[in-house]
Amino acid sequence: MNRRMNRLHREVMRLLIGEIVSGQRPAGEMLPREVDLAEEFGVSRGVARECIRAMEERGLISVKHGRGATISPSASWDVFDPDVLAAMLDSQRGSEVLADYVECRRIIEVAAVGLAAERATPAMLEAATEALERMERSAGRSGPAAEELFHEADVSFHQALIRASGNRALADVAKRIHAGLVVARFPLARPQYRHERALPEHRRILDEVMSGDAEGARRAMSDHLDTIAGYLAEHAVLADGAAQRT
């Protein structure tokens, strides 16, 4: 697929995902045929075909040869996919999706840091230490580039700790969650609290892991996720208020 075709396919796909997630194209409804989609969006049949394939991969539609594509219920959607997640965050169910993410992180990361405290060697924790240092450097700066650096370092920190647990399967599962965090970070970002909350909380987690205190590490991670849950509650109130005004 050439670059222009790839761009068009992604643009159309994102529009369709947004329409499915918002309910404009409800579950059980038939998706227009390839030729009709091409005409509707003013693209080639090849682009329409790629859109259909991409949405099927993401669980948004079910394709049966000879019968066409049907919109799938939300339970079938790949909520870890960045495009699906972005559309869901823009919808009325955004706060619900974020709550699922925070709950999922709590289940995985609290246990993971306990394992890391029990198993990790100093060498295994070098990546987490380096990521925290990058968080500290970028927290003192402002602007979009600094925001990107901070969030990249934040995700790297959590990934490094899960790898330090020594459980490869756990690390692979967490990769998908952390990929979603890159998309989901904006509603929960609180730059004004980084020096007061985010950095001390991350430093505490790492210190507990480095000291080998599994229970302390689990408690530190749980407390950090409590902070995130608090931001989520604030976001939910604001989102609900905005929805009522529209």
Q: Any overview of this molecule?
A:
The chain is mostly helical and 246 residues long. The protein folds into two domains: 3-75, Winged helix-like DNA-binding domain superfamily/Winged helix DNA-binding domain (Arc Repressor Mutant, subunit A), CATH 1.10.10; 92-245, Four Helix Bundle (Hemerythrin (Met), subunit A). It has ten helices and two strands. Strands 1-2 form a two-stranded antiparallel ribbon. The longest helix has 32 residues, at 214-245.
Offer a concise description of the structure.
The chain is mainly alpha-helical and 246 residues long. The chain folds into two domains: 3-75, Arc Repressor Mutant, subunit A (Orthogonal Bundle), CATH 1.10.10.10; 92-245, GntR ligand-binding domain-like (Four Helix Bundle (Hemerythrin (Met), subunit A), Up-down Bundle), CATH 1.20.120.530. It has ten helices and two strands.
